[in-house]
From TrEMBL:
A Gene Ontology biological process term: lipid A biosynthetic process
Classification via InterPro entries: Calcineurin-like_PHP, Metallo-depent_PP-like, Metallophosphoesterase_sf
Gene Ontology MF annotations: UDP-2,3-diacylglucosamine hydrolase activity
Annotated GO CC locations: membrane
Domain Calcineurin-like phosphoesterase, chain residue ranges per copy: 42-209
Protein name: Metallophosphoesterase
Length: 278
């Protein structure tokens, strides 16, 4: 019955139903987080939850990389669940490495694991694809980059649900007094723990924005550690420190191959100086 209903909807394709790569939306946020004066904002593209292998194909990735590159980002950050069923590609998941390498971001592309990456028991295969793609794997690890004379600390945790991601280990190399800190954590509700570590921006995914949303009611089904912060931008305070959290609605789907009132999204986050925002 469910499969029949989905097939019927896909044939009709109403405006609130999203099932194809070209349904993707681009959304932009400007955040006043940089300290130094810069000629232009730092442009970060945030994507998440592709779930390659479950209704998300090689061709879908081609199309979305074209959109990402058209935004001319300085950095691209992928917050988990890159693959869902990595072994369905005839045992050749490495075919994705040359394609992922076409992402253009002069300050680098970064990735941290999600619960489906870990649940697949093929993490070593995913790691090989990521590393052969030239993508930086931030797995309970971080390092400092320089943006026009400003130090920015980028880090990521392992998946929280399946692998007990370690925030303190991820922050081990940080100089707290000097660095703007951006952390990738797949599960967004973990922000209520991360906020105590003076992180400035947490990037998360996991929820798919709900994937299936009901007008006026929201998402009836949400995953563990994704029930409080569902999609979009949030401000979370701890004592005198403000942390921003962005939750990506993701690009792929899980369980059902459709999205209802919840389009897939590529997010552009532009970091500007505090003075510019005043």
């Amino acid at each position: 019955m469910i499969n029949f209903a989905i097939k019927t909807l896909l044939k009709v394709k109403p405006r609130f139903l999203y099932s194809e790569a070209n349904d993707v939306k681009v959304k932009t946020y400007r955040l006043p987080l940089l300290i130094n004066q810069h000629e232009r904002p730092l442009k970060i593209v945030h994507i998440s939850d592709l779930h390659i292998g479950f209704n998300y194909t090689y061709e879908d990735l081609i199309q979305h990389i074209k959109v990402v590159n058209s935004l001319q980002p300085d950095m691209v950050m992928i917050t988990g669940d890159l693959f869902d069923k990595i072994d369905i590609y005839d045992g050749k998941p490495k075919a994705f490495a040359p394609l992922l390498r076409t992402i253009k971001a002069p300050l680098g592309t970064y990735f941290s694991y999600g619960n489906h990456d870990q649940r697949s028991n093929r993490t070593y295969k995913i790691q090989n694809v990521v590393e052969q793609s030239g993508i930086h794997l931030l797995n309970n690890f971080g390092h400092t980059i320089d943006y026009d004379g400003e130090s920015i600390y980028l880090c990521g945790t392992d998946d929280i649900l399946n692998s007990n991601g370690n925030v303190m280990q991820a922050l081990k190399n940080r100089d707290e007094e000097r660095h703007l800190t951006i952390m990738m954590v797949h599960e967004p509700d973990y922000a209520d723990y991360v906020k105590r570590f003076k992180v400035d921006l947490q990037l998360s995914g996991h929820t798919h924005g709900g994937q299936i949303r009901v007008p006026f009611l929201g998402a009836p089904i949400l995953p563990k550690l994704g029930k409080k912060y569902v999609r979009g931008l949030y401000q979370i305070t701890n004592n005198n420190h403000r942390m921003l959290l962005h939750v990506s609605p993701g690009l792929g789907t899980t369980r059902l191959p459709i999205r209802l009132f919840c389009p897939p999204e590529i997010t552009m986050i532009e970091l500007e100086t505090k003075k510019e925002a005043e």
